[in-house]
Amino acid sequence: MPVSAEGTIPRRGFGLYVHWPFCVSKCPYCDFNSHVRERVDAVRWQAAYLTEMAQYAAAGVGRGETITSVFFGGGTPSLMPPETAAAILEAARGHWAFAEDVEITLEANPNSAEAGKFAAFAAAGINRLSIGVQSFDEAVLKFLGRAHDSGEARRAIEAAAKAVPRYSFDLIYARPEQTAESWRAELGDALILAGDHLSLYTLTIEPNTGFAGAVARGVLQPMPSDDQAALYDLTQEILEQAGMPAYEISNHARPGGESRHNLVYWRSGSYLGLGPGAHMRLQQPGGWRAVQNRRKPEAWLEQVDSEGHGRESETPVDAVARAEEALMMGLRLREGVYAQNFHAATGLDLESFVPAARSAPLEAAGLLQRSPARIVATTEGRAVLDGLLARLLA
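Request: output the structure for the sequence above.
Response:
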């Protein structure tokens, strides 16, 4: 049955991402650009963010755009001084217009020292907190290498609920030997504490992580893929019943509670990134540009000091490559890919880029739905999205 063509076309948005690369410790599952440092010169780092931002603004990046979201990610940005976040936001407002409903998110750890700063971050302009809980089970937290305990996690969520209008937290499941019964109980606890958003990720063994080494040594056995799929299906069932359906493969929200910043990525919006390892997709008059900053914190900082920016590479992205990205990102969403947004992001026609003859077998299999307005991967299709995309982009 074709999807409805009715409804408002969602805005793609323009986002600002700020990467704070420092952590208290490195978790064994993490492959993010995060680094453990005993001391950080916060004054110098604040100046560097403002310098890099000013250079992009002077070059016309985002000219005429309205910032719909700001995201402080990491690393652990709740380790930064709240006044650094305030200075970055003040400077950004001087360079660009902010939407009236702008979402300003800061990622945070549940450690007591960081949770104690939530009110100060709210005063700095943060209106949404994303908390890295990962589990409420003490043994699991130890297995995941987390620096907090279950009590701190619960208190941090309570502190977030008091400090900001919106908050979310993450959980990791499909862990070795995890049972459906234990995951159901954990989700029950999470739903009692949840605000308008939950991020629920299956444990993935990424290269060059502590867990990857443990798997190579034979001391860690990942959960079999069939068991992971069963837990994924259980997650969808429980969260649907709780009124927090998946609006993206791993992200669940009550209506209106979706992460607006991540939607910029998934809807192929333009976004600027500041800080070590930040990457960008910038839609400019001459076309799309992909920009990547230097990953190592000290290298980025020294280059900003000497050149005013931390760019390592900048390359054009042609229409076909951008169209493939738009499909890969957009089909993760429950709403799918809107033809109007696809054309705005790529200059190409969605019906022509994905011919009916190519999508028809996937529609017949119940994995895809399409109308003149959009293409949508069904719940079953999102569960096997890699294979679905391989067929669509063949």
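Residues 290 and 315 are 5 Å apart (CA to CA).
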